[in-house]
Amino acid sequence: MNGMSKKPARTLTIGPQGEITLPEDVLQMLDVAPGEKVEFRIDTRHKSVRIERHVDDAWAEAMQPKEQAGFEDILDEQTKRERDAERLFDKRVEEADPEDKKRRPEDDPNLWR
Predict the structure, then answer these.
(1) Whole-model pTM?
(2) Contacts for 31-36: CB closer than 8 Å, 24+ residues apart
(3) Which of 56, 15, 11, 63 minimizes the C-alpha distance to 38?
(4) According to the CATH classification, is domain 12-54 in 2.10.260?
(5) How far apart are CA 53 and CA 26, in angstroms?
């Protein structure tokens, strides 16, 4: 395996001056922000491009402490995931077939006691 993930390919539009805009999740995955440098390698045989994060001084970067998420950040992220899960659950319940909403004998908790 060459380190490439199995995520689906993306289609990006090339701007009038040859520029492309990377989606936010790609920027996060590469750990870069707008205005920072990225490297790209061209594979002429496969007509493909590989984008990597550019590091001017790998030693200096390795010596910097990694920013760790604070307790509030972790709690906010967990709360957001819980809300998203509740919305998804409610959506799927609304979209469910009415036949699926009927109570069945095995739905009664006393049946299993």
Answers:
(1) 0.41
(2) none
(3) 56
(4) yes
(5) 11
